[in-house]
Write a structure and sequence with these properties.
- The protein has six helices and eleven strands.
- It has 237 residues and is of the alpha/beta class.
- The strands form three sheets. Strands 1-2-4-3 form a four-stranded mixed beta sheet, covered by helices on one side. A four-stranded mixed beta sheet has the order 5-6-8-7, covered by helices on one side. It has a three-stranded mixed beta sheet with strand order 9-11-10, with helices on one face.
- Helix 3 crosses helix 4 (185-200).
């Protein structure tokens, strides 16, 4: 079992790695706290550091608690769904024909076979979301490869519960949260750029933020807007 630090009602999971600096994080959606420390750091030293950050931890947890959360979707008619930051109504038609999803102005039409379960409807919408993302992500990558001067060897789309994206700098690949299809397109672009900069600078170092500011000066506003949007409800979470 891993090490942990208890500070009143706050439990901090401690992980030791070959890193130079301590890294403290508060993770959505429930405010879980982790502390990554250099392998040689004594637990009492890590605890002393955590105590100095207790105010910041509580502030972050309170922000997460007050953040709006999406209502679980049932995938039934007249339900509200978001696409690229805009509200759409869902219209469901049961028909003994090939299932499909199509967009008509502000209405998402979901055609399913009679008796299709909520899980089946969820999977159809998710597959449609993947198709939409595959249509817009490659052009964004192509655009920013030239500007940033990096090469993305591949990208992956995945349901994530704690982050919007990630990067494997060694392989040159990025991973994006499929929930981004529900957010404004400029926020998807921000996440892509953020992860692409990590190919040049894996850590959130001063150099990383200098590069991000150089290429995407409005990143603080984009990050704040993204973090203020409703937390996604993941089926099964």
């Amino acid at each position: 079992m891993g090490e942990s630090i208890e500070l009143g009602d706050i439990i901090i999971s401690v992980t030791r790695k070959e890193v130079k600096n301590v890294h403290l994080s508060v993770h959505p959606p429930d405010g879980r706290v982790t502390l990554v420390t250099p392998s040689s750091t004594r637990i009492d030293v890590a605890r002393a550091y955590a105590i100095t950050r207790i105010g910041w931890i509580r502030q972050q947890q309170e922000q997460l608690r007050s953040q709006a959360r999406e209502v679980p979707r049932e995938f039934v008619g007249r339900e509200t769904h978001y696409l690229w930051g805009r509200r759409h109504l869902l219209r469901v038609t049961e028909l003994d024909a090939k299932p499909e999803v199509r967009l008509d102005h502000r209405t998402i039409h979901l055609q399913v076979r009679p008796g299709t379960s909520r899980e089946g409807r969820t999977n159809l919408i998710h597959a449609w979301h993947l198709k939409l993302l595959h249509g817009v992500v490659p052009p964004i990558i192509d655009k920013w490869e030239i500007r940033i001067g990096v090469k993305v060897s591949g990208y992956f789309l995945q349901r994530m519960t704690t982050k919007w994206g990630s990067c494997n700098s060694k392989s040159g690949t990025i991973r994006l949260n499929t929930e981004l299809v529900k957010k404004p397109r400029d926020l998807l672009e921000y996440v892509v750029v953020h992860e692409m900069v990590h190919i040049s600078e894996p850590k959130h170092s001063p150099r990383f933020f200098a590069l991000l500011s150089e290429h995407y000066p409005s990143w603080p506003e984009a990050r704040r807007e993204l973090n203020e949007l409703p937390v996604p409800h993941i089926i099964g979470s």
